[in-house]
Design goal:
mainly alpha, Arc Repressor Mutant, subunit A, 2 domains, 3-stranded antiparallel beta sheet, 7 helices, 69% helix
Length: 143
């Protein structure tokens, strides 16, 4: 399994990388736990503990084995980020839409225009954007 798929295989690992990039490559574990809990929309004690346990037992060891981070004395340090990981780290904020939703919406606009103008080329473009949107959504769900 390549390093990219190890990172992309879980949203918490992606959030770890994102936080480390924002923190100039170095962060205390407790700050990272708080960031991930906030990103997941639940900062109660039980959820923070769940995040902490999953990082310690699963995500940190996996990223250390891949040479992405080091973890010493409560400090997580970013060693490297594979180039292609950044391409796939789509972060959608609360009021934003995902790229897959954007593509599907665009396909509906093209479809409406195709029907109104009776244009088969716009209908084809609509199908292309709908396909891209569905493929993108499926890929992001695997993450």
């Amino acid at each position: 399994m390549g390093t990219s798929s190890v990172i992309l295989g879980n949203s918490r690992r992606m959030l770890m990388i994102e936080y480390l990039q924002k923190s100039e490559g170095r962060a205390e574990l407790r700050d990272m736990v708080e960031y991930i809990a906030e990103s997941e929309g639940n900062t109660d004690r039980k959820h923070r503990k769940s995040v902490y346990v999953s990082l310690i037992q699963t995500h940190i060891p996996k990223l250390e084995r891949e040479g992405v981070i080091t973890f010493r004395h409560g400090i997580v340090t970013l060693v490297k980020v594979p180039e292609d990981v950044t391409l796939y780290m789509e972060t959608v904020k609360k009021n934003d839409i995902s790229w897959s939703s954007f593509y599907v919406g665009l396909s509906l606009i093209f479809l409406a225009a195709a029907l109104y103008l009776e244009n088969p080329h716009l209908a084809f473009a609509s199908l292309v954007y709908a396909g891209v949107g569905m493929i993108h959504r499926r890929m992001m769900r695997r993450v």
